[in-house]
Amino acid sequence: MRTLQTLSILGISPVLQCTACRHAPLFSHQDLRPQCPSTLPSSPNPTLFRRSLTQARLSSSSSPTFSYRIAASFSGKGRRFNPKTDLYSHNSDLELLEGAFTGRPSSGQDAFFVSKIGNSSSTAFGVADGVGGWSDSGFDSAHFSHGLCQWMARGAEMVGVAGGEAEVKKLGPRELLEKAYAGIVADKVVEGGGSTACVAVGRGDGNLTVANLGDSGFVQLRLNAVNYYSNPQTHAFNTPYQLSIVPPRVLALSKAFGGGPLHDLPKDAGISTHEVRHGDVLVFATDGVWDNLNPTDLLKIVSRQMTGFQAWVNGDKGTEVSDKIYDLAKDGGIAVQVENSLQSTLAVNIVGEAKAASVDHKRDGPFAKEVQRFYPHEDWHGGKVDDICVVVAVVIHDEPAPP
């Protein structure tokens, strides 16, 4: 395991930092009591997770214009990628409280969630990446990242139960992140750890709002072009912003050494707003992707699939969105053995390419180039092996209902 010496920046005390993971204070190991976020108790609001499926649901006042066809794929570090099992497809037509993924996939410390917001046309989705350096203090950040995503999924589902449609319209990704963070801290099931997060709320009117905290991120691709990509938030090289739960003993140890663990808050997340168009592809990913592929690499992967299946076609005015995209983005729209929709095909291909790049010792990815820039004496080459998690959303302008 290689180590890098990180200088004191922004009040962070000097620590040895492993290039195979991300920063956390390095203290002596202590056994972590196994705890799974799937056993999370109810929210501080005792009614949050106790609503029956038979209760009245919030009705949307207008029909949606855009929908988000979503799939996720993932691969844990050190695991062989299996596109048959390491794949999740979201059915946006599912009823409230059935329209969210709240499980725990075999994605290591990376996690994701997808959920309808109440019974509206809006959808919340995103990724979270547990910071591996916390293991040196005896904490598995997988509990934090997966638990955070479960809280966000369930929180989005329940919006509108008490506050109605006004509450649905008010909910943004930062508010969702704040509620989830407050909930997981209050639960006290997760004792310690840290995680980045990149969270989106996509609305039926085509407005997309994103909250990004740390070095996970997203890219918006449109007709063979990169329309937008997010910038990472870092305190220093390989030291991302992160939400965290800091146990008293860790805080005491860090103070004894004259420093303090990273402890960013949801309010520190960068917020961006975007207008989506029919045929846009949104890719949300953890740094297992961004350390090995840049936005142009993702565009090549996505364009190859979109043009290959003729979702994007060359027309008189350049690249255009084909009417075939409506069927391709439906379950069963692509008749192959593994993937059954355009979005699942994109997600699987991105993870597969990132996985291959991470173990390629001859191809210098973005992480290798950053190491060469900041620490040329390290002579780092090739990819960076890490957990990988991708959420892909294909934006569809809903077909008008027949008269």
Description:
This protein has a single domain (3-26, 65-397), classed as Phosphatase 2c, domain 1 (4-Layer Sandwich), CATH 3.60.40. The protein is built from nine helices and 19 strands. Strands 5, 6, 7, 8, 9, 14 and 15 form a seven-stranded antiparallel β-sheet that branches. It has 403 residues and is α+β, with helices and mostly antiparallel strands. Helix 1 packs across helix 3 and helix 6 (295-308) packs across helix 8 (342-358).
Report the end-to-end length measured between terminal Cα atoms: 65 Å
| DSSP, total strands | 19
Assign an overall shape. globular
> How many structural domains are formed by the residues?
1
Instruction: Give the fraction of residues assigned to helices.
Output: 10-25%
Question: Any idea what the radius of gyration is?
Answer: 21 Å
Major sheet description: 7 strands, antiparallel
Order of SSEs: EEEEEEEHHHEEEEEEEHEEHHEEHHHE
Proportion of strand residues: 25-35%
CATH second-level architecture: 4-Layer Sandwich
Supply the CATH class. Answer: Alpha Beta
Decide which structural class fits the backbone: alpha+beta
Output the CATH topology.
Phosphatase 2c, domain 1
Quote the average pLDDT: 79
- CATH homologous superfamily - what is it? PPM-type phosphatase domain
Low-confidence runs of at least 5 consecutive residues:
1-61, 94-100
